[in-house]
């Protein structure tokens, strides 16, 4: 059995259940997340990683504080270079803009470089519905496009698949003879993609960062497909979230460092493609038309609601790789374009329809490994706590939980009721434990969720405070006696 | 967060025993008291204390957590302010994190200036047990003796919020007769996470099972840790799976004394399959 796709619209519980049952998924995730994490650690310790993180964070904070000005500067410079800037409030506006550009340029086929933001706005679907052919050209993206799946990781879209699974997809969709040789598989994909590059009229990519000062769009890739997408077709469209910009060229290289080291553990990526405008007279290549779509889609709302810190994200995926929850369930279980800790934070805040997004902030043990890994030091656990608190304040917490919490606080608010509850729990749990050989094997719902897989110890027969009181009494006796 | 540095070693501390230790693991509380006393620190136990409010806070119930936080501040605040104790010590990384880090989230200085001041002054003198022993008292060897293979699990709040890691490891390294073994993924979460263990029981269990696998690979008899909540989770799985290893709170290991005057007789050389009593079984 191959690593099966999880239906993103299935209820959260169902998605998680399927993911947990999938042993191949577990193998694939364990291998790759551990590999990526240790590569990151090595790359970050090879330099002054703390300083790199601090500086990147400061720079991104500056960007957020000056967002409107910097965006306008970016627009001015792109326009001056001969490019076009479009502003999109939401997904449908962005789709309409890209479709309109395609229509005017008479486009039939689109080649794409890996981009999360276009996944976020379901651009492929919109283009295909309009009759265009869309081809993903990043090898990983190409594989999941063939498999009919969304990406399951911000940086490594096929992280959930083993080599065996990929071979199965290629055999089915590309008539590849059975092989597990990665080189042979790559060669087949490359030959196919070459044809697509040569015949596409439009290239679409996301943006890793855009430089306000020069009006330059930068994309970071390892396969070289990015530079084909940005330079071969007649029209090049870059779609970027409004937060993905940096003030200066120097800042761009700061973020480039942080991004490469954190995502794949590389010092720098194999390719860095910079596009500042359309082809000028005398240029040997480059697009005739250059468009940049600036997408809000809930981002300014996030800023306004106090979740601006999440907009510092450079989408390196480091938090996914270290996340023990992600490692167990993979990206698809999150049901959204963005998975892992950062996904759990932004998916409920983005306007995209994610089934049961409200459950995502609870899918974390708040262990904090993500914050330690994040190159911009985003305090992801705190953001998750804030989201939980917002839900409670908006009265969205389950009724039973609210009642339980009220009882809990009332009990803990007085020594008497606390001590009485303790005695009761001790009596009840010891009686039950006596029946099941020392530990509790069954508890009533909702605590049964614990005892289904784990024992629980009975409460102590004598609490610490009782032992303490006895000890103090003994001491007093000794003191009096002596 | 700024920890106070003491010119004179603290003489008297207030024990913040935590509700779980109080009600489920009193032996951990007792071991903590004995350890502190043995190192010349007088312990007082403010009996009005209950719970710091962490379960409510983590689940998003800030109003509810605030009620318990206020209570904690009112019980422990005066003791520190009036000089009755020099510090507050808790045998728990996560409860220490709650009172020293997260209380600040509950009281903003504009709306609750008094509480805010109080949480800051308490945060400076509240310590997790091993942090207190090593950083404040300067103890690196508690004189404990514990025969067996011991490994260490780093509980998340202790490691990542309080940044306490070297302290417990140093203390364990100096335990006589303990053979320290490496634990793969020692810094990975065990999957407890409070309500997470109930709300996302499947993921929580999968994380714990990974921990249990690593523990089995390590060959350890016991895994020492500084938080009874993680201890409950890890033991819950180990016991359900019938594994031999057990999680033990570090206070119990650091407090374990074997009478040096009369060591237990060595096992007869040729006697096969002499079952050595497992140390954790005595402890539990
Ligand atoms: S939150 Fe941090 S670690 Fe996660 S993807 Fe964004 S920048 Fe990377």
Structure description:
The complex is a heterodimer of chains A (482) and B (284). By secondary structure, chain A is α/β, with parallel strands linked by helices. In chain A, strands 1-10-7-4-2-3 form a six-stranded parallel sheet, sandwiched between helices. In chain A, strands 8-5-6-9 form a four-stranded mixed sheet, with helices on both faces. Chain A folds into two domains: 290 residues, Rossmann fold, CATH 3.40.50.10420; 82 residues, no CATH class. Helix content of chain A is 52%, strand content 10%. The longest helix of chain A is centred in the N-terminal third of the chain and has 23 residues. In chain A, helix 9 packs across helix 10 and helix 16 packs parallel to helix 18. Chain A has 22 helices and ten strands. Chain A is elongated. Chain B is of the alpha/beta class. In chain B, 48% of the residues lie in helices and 12% in strands. In chain B, helix 12 links the parallel strand 7 and strand 8. Chain B is globular and about 50 Å long. At the A-B interface, helix 1, helix 15, helix 17, helix 18 and helix 19 of A face helix 1, helix 2, helix 3, helix 4 and helix 8 of B. Iron/sulfur cluster (SF4) binds next to helix 14 of chain A. Chain A: It comes from Litorilinea aerophila. Chain A: Keywords: 4Fe-4S, Electron transport, Iron, Iron-sulfur, Metal-binding, Repeat, Transport. Chain A: This is Iron-sulfur cluster-binding protein. Chain A: One of its GO terms (biological process) is lactate metabolic process.
- Provide mean pLDDT of chain B, rounded: 92
Low-confidence stretches of chain A: none
CATH architecture title of the largest domain in chain A: 3-Layer(aba) Sandwich
User: Looking across the biggest beta sheet of chain B, what order are the strands in?
Assistant: 2-1-3-4
Kindly give the count of domains of chain B.
Answer: 2
Global geometry of chain A: elongated
- Give the low-confidence spans of chain B: 259-279
Name of the CATH class of the largest domain in chain A: Alpha Beta
Write down the secondary-structure element order of chain B.
Answer: EHHEHHEHHEHEHHEHHEHEHH
How many DSSP H or I helices of chain B?
A: 14
Number of strands of chain A: 10
> Could you tell me how far the N terminus lies from the C terminus of chain A, measured between alpha carbons in angstroms?
78 Å
Distance between the termini of chain B: 35 Å
């Amino acid at each position: 059995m191959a690593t099966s796709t999880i239906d993103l619209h299935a209820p959260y519980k169902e998605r998680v259940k399927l993911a947990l049952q999938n042993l191949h998924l577990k193998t694939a995730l364990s291998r790759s997340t551990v590999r990526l994490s240790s590569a990151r650690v090595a790359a970050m310790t090879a330099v002054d990683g703390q300083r790199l993180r601090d500086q990147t964070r400061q720079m991104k904070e500056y960007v957020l504080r000056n967002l409107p000005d910097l965006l306008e500067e970016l627009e001015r410079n792109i326009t001056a270079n001969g490019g076009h800037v479009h502003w999109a409030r939401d997904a449908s506006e962005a789709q309409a803009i890209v479709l309109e550009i395609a229509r005017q340029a008479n486009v039939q086929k689109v080649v794409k470089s890996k981009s999360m933001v276009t996944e976020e706005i379901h651009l492929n679907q919109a283009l295909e519905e309009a009759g265009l052919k869309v081809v993903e050209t990043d090898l990983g993206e190409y594989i999941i496009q063939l498999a009919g799946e969304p990406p399951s990781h911000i940086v490594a879209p096929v992280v959930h698949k083993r080599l065996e699974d990929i071979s199965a997809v290629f055999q089915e969709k590309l008539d590849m003879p059975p092989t597990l040789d990665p080189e042979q598989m790559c060669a087949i994909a490359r030959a196919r993609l070459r044809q697509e590059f040569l015949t596409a009229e439009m290239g679409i990519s996301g943006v890793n960062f855009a430089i306000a000062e020069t009006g330059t769009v930068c994309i970071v890739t390892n396969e070289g497909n990015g530079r084909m997408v940005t330079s071969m077709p007649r029209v090049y469209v870059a779609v970027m979230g409004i937060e993905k910009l940096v003030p200066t060229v120097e800042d761009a290289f700061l973020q480039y460092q942080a991004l490469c080291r954190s995502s794949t553990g590389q010092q720098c990526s194999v390719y860095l493609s910079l596009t500042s405008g359309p082809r000028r007279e005398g240029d040997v290549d480059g697009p005739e038309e250059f468009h940049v779509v600036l997408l809000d889609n809930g981002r300014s709302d996030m800023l306004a609601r106090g979740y601006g810190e999440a907009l510092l994200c450079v989408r390196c995926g480091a938090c996914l790789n270290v996340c023990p929850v992600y490692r167990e369930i993979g990206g698809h279980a999150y049901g959204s374009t963005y998975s892992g800790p950062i996904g759990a934070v932004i998916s409920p805040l983005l306007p995209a329809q994610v089934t049961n997004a409200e459950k995502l902030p609870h899918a974390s043990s708040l262990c904090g490994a993500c914050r330690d890994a994040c190159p911009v030091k985003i305090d992801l656990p705190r953001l998750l706590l804030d989201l939980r608190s917002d839900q409670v304040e908006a009265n969205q917490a389950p009724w039973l939980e609210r009642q339980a919490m009220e009882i809990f606080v009332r009990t803990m608010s007085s020594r008497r009721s606390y001590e009485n509850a303790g005695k009761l729990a001790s009596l009840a749990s010891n009686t039950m434990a006596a029946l099941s050989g020392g530990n509790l094997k069954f508890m009533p719902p909702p605590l049964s969720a614990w005892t289904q897989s784990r024992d629980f110890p009975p409460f102590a027969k004598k609490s610490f405070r009782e032992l303490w009181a006895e000890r103090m009494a003994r001491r007093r006796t000794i003191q009096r006696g002596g | 967060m700024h920890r106070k540095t003491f010119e004179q070693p603290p003489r008297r501390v207030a024990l913040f025993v935590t509700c779980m230790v109080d009600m489920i693991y009193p032996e951990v509380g007792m071991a903590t008291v004995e350890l502190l006393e043995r190192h010349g620190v007088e312990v007082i136990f403010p009996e009005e204390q209950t719970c710091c409010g962490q379960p409510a806070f983590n689940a998003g119930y800030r109003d509810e957590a605030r009620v318990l936080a206020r209570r904690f501040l009112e019980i422990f605040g005066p003791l520190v302010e009036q000089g009755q104790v020099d510090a507050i010590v808790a045998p728990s990384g996560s409860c220490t994190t709650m009172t020293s880090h997260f209380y600040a989230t509950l009281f903003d200085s504009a709306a609750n200036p008094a509480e805010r001041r109080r949480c800051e002054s308490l945060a400076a003198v509240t310590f997790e047990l091993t942090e207190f022993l090593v950083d404040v008292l300067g103890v690196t060897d508690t004189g404990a003796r514990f025969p067996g293979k011991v490994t260490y699990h780093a509980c998340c709040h202790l490691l990542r919020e309080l940044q306490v890691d070297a302290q417990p490891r140093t203390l364990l390294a100096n335990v006589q007769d303990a053979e320290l073994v490496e634990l793969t993924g020692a810094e990975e979460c065990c999957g407890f996470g409070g309500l997470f263990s109930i709300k996302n029981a499947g993921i929580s269990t999968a994380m714990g099972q990974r921990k249990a696998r690593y523990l089995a690979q390590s060959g350890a008899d016991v895994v020492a840790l500084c938080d009874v909540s993680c201890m409950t989770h890890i033991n819950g799985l180990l016991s359900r799976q019938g594994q031999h290893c057990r999680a033990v709170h570090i206070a119990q290991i650091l407090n374990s004394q074997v009478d040096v005057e009369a060591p237990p007789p060595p096992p007869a050389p040729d006697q096969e399959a002499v079952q050595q009593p497992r140390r954790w079984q005595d402890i539990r």
